[in-house]
Amino acid sequence: MLRWVPLLIFAAATTVGAAAAAPDASSPPVVIVHEPHLTGYHMPSASMEPTLQCAHPAPGCEAAYPDRLVVQSLKRAPQRGDILVFRAPALARVRCAATGTYVKRLIGLPGETVSERDGVISIDGKKLVEPYIKRNRRDTVLHGTWHIPRDRNFVLGDNRALSCDSRIWGSVPSADLIGKVVLIYRQR
To answer: Domain 39-185 class?
Structure first.
């Protein structure tokens, strides 16, 4: 059975079906939308679980069906917390053995310094509040400090323990950003 699950209200969208509780206010809405300029993707890995779900039997995936993502090209500079789709950097291809496009959350902006210690992220020395990260999904193994150069973005998966992201392969050039996830279609 298909069910549309609205998480937030989005002005250009029409919701269909029963509503469910929102996991948090920083996640894009789950709705149906009729916009010809939007592009669709699906979530292939557990790196963004549970915010974005992938499907069994892939490792770490919790859903029967992968989320379908509607992505809109960027009309302005992305904001911290946006979920972005981007072309995989060359080093990501080498270190993560995956090519194509990635989906991660924007954490560090150009000119900032990001650090991680015991699974907690700080931006320029201030702890980042991340209500979308579950305690058991924090990565307590990787530690480090990264300075984000101009025209680059530091992105992380919400499932940090299973995410190959900017901590592994560095920041993403702004020119490689494809767009922002604006809608999530979740099949139940």
So the answer is: mainly beta
Among residues 128, 113, 97, 110, the alpha carbon closest in space to that of 177 is found at 110
**104 an active-site residue?**
yes
Order of strands across the sheet that contains 177-185: 39-42, 68-72, 177-185, 83-87, 101-108, 152-156, 172-173
Considering 26, 27, 45, 104, which one is annotated as catalytic? 104
Could you state, in order of their start, the residue ranges of all structural domains in the chain? 39-185
**Which of the residues 26, 27, 45, 47 is marked catalytic?**
47
Average pLDDT on 43-71 reads 84
> Residue 26's pLDDT is what?
59
Which residue has 């139940």 as its token pair? 188
Global model pTM greater than 0.70: yes
